[in-house]
Each structure stands twice: as structure tokens, then as C-alpha cells.
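Both lines are quoted verbatim for reference:

——
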Amino acid sequence: MIDPLMLEDVRAGMAGAGIDALVLRPSPDFRYLRAAPLPGADGESYLVVALDGPPTPAGDPAQAAALVPPTARRVAVDPQMHAAELFALRLDAELVLASAVLAPLRLRKRSDEVAAMRHAAEAADAVLLAARELAWFGATELAMARRLRAMLAETGCEGAAFVLVAAGEHSADARHRPCERVINPGDALLVSVAGRWNGYCAEVARVFAVAEPPEDFDAMYSVVLAAQRAAVDRVRPGVDCAEVATIAREVIDGSGYGDYAAARTGRGIGLSPVEGPWLAAGERFEAGMTVCLEPAIYLPDLFGARVADVVVCGEEGPELLSTGSRALHVLEC
């Protein structure tokens, strides 16, 4: 159920943190350890990992608690565990988050993890390429988002982490969710597709224009592309993660759009759409880390542009998992 080498790393982390047992529920951490639900448990099974003995699944929190060694004094629980589950455990031990052990291990992706993310990125690329042939004019954001979600499922992805369609002034809202707004000629169109393959996520975001780009949009969009290229080129082992965000911001600031730059240049991605590494000072890139680089410029009430791609930090430098064109594509009405 769990790779022996992975289990060895997990237990080394537990010992180093003074943790006697892990109790996990279905979650990204659960999936990372390749824990399979108990037959008949409807997927809501648990996993207990002690410092010795085989990792053991349980059907409910009470069963999980019974598998924790009675001498355990410090138990790490899944970060996504609900309050009712924690109370049901009834453990006479100090409870800490399992992410203290598993988050550092999840930072550096194995080759099979990268392969799954590449599949997800390629699927998103394929959907966005096919999306160029769809009839956008007159449709609503919500209808097109549903169409893209269905197309993603047709690629074999196990699900969509999210799908975004934002037209016109909505493309300048970083928190926008698809709604009944009708897509019209002259709209800038921000489209993002994030799929899952074997549990792993990859997002690809592109910008279209309907019939013709808004005035001055081309110039702004070229700045976003330049910022992303600069950020991607800086991803390599040993580089401070914050430098990637800084160099993208410097490109945007130098263009005069600094006041309208998105607060976030990127984030780590893997089993979760948002996870480490964080683009913050003190963290350094290591081979195997994966980030979604997504610089953006948002002009309130007018339009915005964001381009997103997943980048792997390789031994020799960056590797983009999505290869589709980033050029502004004008959709026919």
C-alpha cells in the first residue's frame, strides 16, 4: 500500500519531529502515501502509521484511535480532519499537524508525480486549443465553463480542480467566478483550466479576445508574457524562491503597470492546487519542486490578463509542462 522507501522517509521525519503516530483521513496527504480506502468504507477510511509495524487502514476515527500505540505521546493528525473526527479519536496525546512531516516530503516531486502533472497539463492544453473553435459570442461565462469542464473530462482527467471563464471587466477580478454574464465582441477573455490526473493538478491559463482586442490590451498583455518568461527562466536549484516573484514584479513595474500587478506571481502545486513551495524569502528551489507561475495585471472595471503554466525545477533549470501557444488569440464571432 505504501512504497517502502517512502515509508522509510516518513518515519525518519516522524522520529525527527518526536511524533509517535500519524492519523490520516482522505486528503492530499492520504493520497500522497497511496493509501487505499477499505472495501465498503465508501472512501471515508483512515490510515494510521506508527514508528514500527505495517501502516494500517481503519474505517472510522474510533478504529483509527485503537490502532495508535497506547504509549504514543505525540500524534500527528491530517490537516483536513474535521472537529467531529478529532473528538471521536479521544486520544490521550498531544495532537500536531501531519504536515510537519509530510509537507517537506511533498515539496520534491518524484518522476511519477511529475508525469501525472504533465498529463494534466497536456489535457488542459488540449482543451484550450479546442476552445478556440467554440462559439463564444452570445454564450455566458457559466455555460462556457461547464463546456470546458466536460471537455476536460473527455481527455481522461479524473476531474477538474477548477475551470475559470472571465469576460470583459470580470477578467480584472482575481476572485471572479463564472456567472451569467454574456460574452460579447471586443471582450478580453481570461480562460483557465486546471485538471487532475492520478490526483495531481496542473493549471493552464490563457487569454483570448473576442473579434478584436480592447484598446491598449496588446501592450499590457505583452508585459504579462515578459514577466512570466523572466520568472520561468529564474527557476533553478539553489535560487531563493522569492527571487522568482521579484523578477516578474520588476518587469511589470518597469512597464508602468506596477500599481495594477497581481499580488501573487505564483504558488506551489501538486496534489493540491495550492501548496508549497511558497514564493517567499528563505525558501530555495530544489530539483523536483513544481510551481504554477501566473503573473497578472488587472485594470479595474476594464480588463485583465493572467497567464499560468506549471514549471518543474530540473537539475539544469526550468521545464514547462504545458507547451501550448501563449500568443493572444482572437476568437471569431
Remarks:
- Residues 111-331 form a domain with the Creatine Amidinohydrolase fold (CATH 3.90.230.10).
